[in-house]
C-alpha cells in the first residue's frame, strides 16, 4: 500500500540492473508512491539487464546513459524533462563498480588505471550528474538527490579495497555540491549508507557472504534489505524531509553505532561470566 508520498513528482533512477538491484526496489516503491520517472543505466549493462521488464511494470521510459559521459548525461536530463513534462524532483544515484575488486587485486597493490576508472564511474559520476543538471537547470527547487554508499568510507574493511576511498569521495561530493546547489536552488543532496545487500555489486566483493552474516550478527535490527533501503530513499525524495541535506545517513539496522554484539562474542568463544 502506498501513501502517495511522491504524487506528481518526476524522477530519474539510475542503476537498476536486475530485480536484486537496490535501484530496482526504489523504482517499484516510487511507482507505488505515485511518481513518474525515467530509468537509466550504462548501455552495456542494459543489454544484459532486465530493465525493460521494470520499465513495463512501472510505466517508465528508458534513456541509456553512461554516467561517466557528460554528453550522455546532458541528453538524459534534457530528454527526461521532455518525457516527464517538466523539471526533475528526485534523482537516485545507484552506481558502483571497481575493476580492482572484480579482479581481486589487494588494496596495497592497486592498479591505478582501474582505480581511476572506479573513481570516475562510482564517485565523479555524481559530480557530473549534478553539474549537468545544474547547468541545464533541470532540477526543481527543493528537489532531492540521493546517492548510495557504504560505511567503508569511515571505517576500514580490508576487502572493500579502493571502493572505500571512492565512497569517501562520493560522500564528500554530496556535501560539497549540496552546499552550492542548496544555496542556489534549495536542492538537497544526501548519501544513504546501506547494509551489505545481496546484489550483483555486493556479492562481487570477496568474502561478501561471511561479511553479510557478520554485519547481520552485529546489527540489533539485522541487515537492512534492498526493499528497506528503497523505503528510506522514498522518504528522502518526499517533502517530509525537506530540511535534510548534505548528510551521510546510515541505514543499517544500528550496525554503525554498535561496538559488538553478544552473538559475535559468543561465536568467538570469548564470552565470560563476569
Ligand atoms: N550491495 C551492497 O552491499 C551495497 C551496500 C552499500 C551500498 N551499495 C551501493 O548501492 C549502489 C547500487 O548497487 P547495488 O548493490 O544495487 O548493485 P547493482 O550491481 O545492482 O547496481 C550497480 C549499478 O551500477 C551500474 N553502473 C556501472 N557502471 C555504470 C556506468 N558507467 N554508468 C551508469 N551505470 C553504471 C550498473 O549497471 C548497475 O546497474 C552502489 O553505489 C553500491 O556501491 C551497495
UniProtKB/TrEMBL annotation:
Q: Which SUPFAM superfamilies match?
A: NAD(P)-binding Rossmann-fold domains
What catalytic reaction does the record list?
A: a 2,3-saturated acyl-[ACP] + NAD(+) = a (2E)-enoyl-[ACP] + NADH + H(+)
One Gene Ontology molecular-function label: enoyl-[acyl-carrier-protein] reductase (NADH) activity
**What InterPro entries does the record point to?**
Enoyl-ACP_Rdtase_NADH, NAD(P)-bd_dom_sf, SDR_fam
State its Enzyme Commission number(s). 1.3.1.9
- The main enzyme category here is oxidoreductase
**Could you name the domain of life of the organism this protein comes from?**
Bacteria
Q: Name one GO biological process term.
A: fatty acid biosynthetic process
Q: Which PANTHER family match?
A: ENOYL-[ACYL-CARRIER-PROTEIN] REDUCTASE, ENOYL-[ACYL-CARRIER-PROTEIN] REDUCTASE [NADH], CHLOROPLASTIC
What is the similarity comment for this entry?
Belongs to the short-chain dehydrogenases/reductases (SDR) family. FabI subfamily.
The name under which this protein is listed is Enoyl-[acyl-carrier-protein] reductase [NADH]
